[in-house]
Amino acid sequence: VPVPMHGIKRRLRGDDPVASLAQWVARSLHLPYDPHLLCRTRWSTSQTRLTTSQRFRNVEGLFRIRARSPVDRAVLLVDDVLTTGGSLRQMMEAVARLGGRVVGIGVLVDRSQEKVELDVPLFSCHRAIVPTYRPEACPQCRAGQPLVKPGSSA
């Protein structure tokens, strides 16, 4: 089951890479693929520039099960990047509320630096050690170097 992307964002992007990844994983493991089990309850701010506590608040109550009947099955969740685990925890709670159980999580990139405990096996294609800083502690900021988002001109 992929982490669901909001419909507006999917239309703006033209694709849903996490859903494509989840479909590939399901096909490779000969498992059923269900992209519609979970849905977002609302639009959420991008997590990329949020602190850990802001990330957890941003995703609180963000997912729900579409079906009204109990899930009653094992679920493998798939996401692109694991940082704090907030989105995945919210999805796990949504699955559990209707009787399902998450048996594992697959991500492309694990940025958590092993600080996230999800109580299920975690499979990642790549573990990235990426230091993060509060603005006042950022070495580039202190040196007066401008911060530029990769791929942007600003």
| Major sheet | 3 strands, parallel
Structural class: alpha/beta
Query: Assembly type of the shown chains?
Result: single chain
Helix segment count?
5
Please give the alpha-carbon distance between the first and last residues. Answer: 36 Å
Beta-strand share of residues: 15-25%
Q: Spans with pLDDT under 50 lasting ≥5 residues?
A: none
Number of strands: 5
Q: How much helix, percentage-wise, in residues?
A: 25-40%
**What's the order of the H and E elements?**
HHEHEEHEEH
Mass-distribution shape: globular
Order of adjacent strands in the largest pleated sheet: 3-4-5
The Rg value, from CA coordinates, equals 17 Å
Features:
single chain, 154 residues, alpha/beta, two-stranded antiparallel sheet, 5 helices, 20% strand, globular
Verbal overview:
This protein has 154 residues and is an alpha/beta fold. Strand 3, helix 4 and strand 4 (101-110) form a beta-alpha-beta unit. The strands form two sheets. Strands 3-4-5 form a three-stranded parallel sheet. It has a two-stranded antiparallel ribbon with strand order 1-2. The protein is built from five helices and five strands, in the order H-H-E-H-E-E-H-E-E-H. It starts with 6 loop residues before the first helix and ends in a 12-residue tail after the last helix. It has helices at 7-13, 17-29, 52-59, 86-97, 139-142; strands spanning 38-40, 63-65, 74-82, 101-110, 122-127.
